[in-house]
């Protein structure tokens, strides 16, 4: 069987694929504005300050995450991720950023963010779905769960700030987080709004669909077509338009209602099982963690959006025994499906 993904399995945590003068430079400027010493800021990044002035310098997600960790430690402030997020979108990241400024409505903006996330959001991958009443955006790490709270805070802030700026309206978002309520909750209220829920299964944003297709005041429906063509050219210049973990997630998601194992996944990516295990370990994950993540997210979707019962969800996810499904579900979520779906 010939692999369909092997030729380009996606950018990895050590792939030089992020323009240093894009998101990383914005973080550098924020830190320097607070009198942080540049040598300490760049420690262990294998970067020099002048590298961020060049349009040709590319850094890896790992280097970017190290820069975030250094900034977080040195700034030692609760508002850093939020101030950073406010500066990220639409951004000045080439044609993809220009397209965001020309969109007609919120739906188009989020679609562009998802399609060009390798440029606009290289550390957190946004995915969407909707029901009759709400539009959902959920986030998964593109390469690593390192600095997850910072990247989630900045990513959600970036979207909310951009939508508010482009729409000229205050949008009623709800934000869910898969971690505990932080001590600095005031920063969440100021930057993300009051409708917040913690200790959830996903990092997810929710928007009433009545806001989704409202025309925005500075829409440029004629100009954006050419800009999107330029954005596609920009994307093709990258090593890949998705990360390795993005491709793993998407493959498992597309085949989640079929029996899957490490051998089948490895074959699809043109790797031996041992090589696949090493590659996943390099990204601080495993095959079991990846399939559990997709199964969890799919189960939540099937219950909340498709309104399937536990038996139907178990069958869809290839569980023939309900006891096995309950045990697996508790491993994914920390609770039983009956308790979670009763909430």
Please give a structural write-up.
Helix 4 (80-86) runs parallel beside helix 8, helix 12 packs across helix 13 and helix 14 (287-304) packs across helix 16. This protein has a five-stranded mixed sheet with strand order 3-4-7-5-6. Strands 1-2 form a two-stranded antiparallel ribbon. It has 343 residues and is of the alpha+beta class. Helices cover 49% and strands 9% of the residues.
Short description:
The chain is an alpha+beta fold. It is 49% helix and 9% strand. The protein is built from 17 helices and 7 strands.
Keywords:
343 residues, alpha+beta, Arc Repressor Mutant, subunit A, 3 domains, 5-stranded mixed sheet, two-stranded antiparallel ribbon, 17 helices, globular
What's the topology here?
Elements: E1 18-19, H1 23-32, H2 38-41, E2 58-59, H3 61-75, H4 80-86, H5 95-100, H6 106-115, H7 117-120, E3 124-130, E4 134-141, H8 148-167, E5 174-176, H9 185-192, E6 196-197, E7 203-208, H10 223-236, H11 244-254, H12 262-268, H13 273-282, H14 287-304, H15 310-316, H16 322-333, H17 337-342
Parallel strand pairs: 5-6
Antiparallel strand pairs: 1-2, 3-4, 4-7, 5-7
């Amino acid at each position: 069987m010939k692999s369909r993904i092997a030729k380009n399995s996606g950018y990895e945590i050590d792939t030089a694929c992020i323009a240093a003068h894009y998101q990383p430079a914005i973080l550098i400027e924020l830190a320097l504005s607070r009198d942080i010493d540049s040598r300490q800021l760049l420690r262990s990044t294998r970067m020099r300050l002048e590298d961020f002035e060049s349009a040709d310098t590319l850094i890896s997600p790992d280097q970017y995450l190290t820069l975030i960790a250094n900034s977080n430690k040195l700034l030692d402030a609760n508002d850093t991720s939020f101030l950073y997020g406010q500066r990220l979108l639409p951004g000045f990241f080439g044609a993809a950023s220009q397209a965001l400024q020309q969109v007609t409505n919120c739906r188009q903006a989020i679609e562009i963010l998802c399609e060009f996330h390798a440029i606009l959001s290289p550390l957190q991958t946004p995915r969407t779905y909707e029901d009759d009443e709400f539009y959902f955006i959920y986030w998964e790490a593109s390469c690593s769960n390192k600095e997850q709270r910072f990247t989630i805070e900045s990513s959600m802030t970036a979207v909310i700030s951009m939508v508010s700026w482009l729409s000229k309206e205050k949008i009623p978002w709800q934000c869910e987080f898969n971690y505990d309520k932080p001590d600095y909750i005031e920063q969440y209220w100021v930057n993300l709004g009051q409708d917040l829920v913690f200790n959830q299964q996903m990092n997810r944003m929710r928007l009433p669909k009545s806001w989704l297709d409202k025309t925005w005041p500075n829409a440029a429906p004629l100009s954006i077509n050419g800009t999107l063509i330029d954005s596609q050219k920009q994307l093709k210049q990258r090593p890949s338009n998705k990360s390795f973990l993005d491709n793993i997630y998407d493959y498992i998601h597309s085949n989640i209602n079929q029996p899957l194992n490490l051998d089948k996944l490895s074959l699809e990516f043109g790797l031996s099982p041992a090589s696949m295990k090493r590659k996943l370990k390099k990204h601080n994950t495993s095959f079991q963690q990846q399939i559990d993540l997709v199964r969890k997210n799919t189960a939540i979707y099937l219950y909340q959006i498709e309104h399937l019962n536990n038996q139907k969800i178990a069958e869809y996810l290839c569980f023939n025994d309900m006891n096995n499904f309950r045990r697996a579900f508790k491993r994914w979520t920390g609770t039983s499906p009956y308790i979670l779906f009763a909430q």
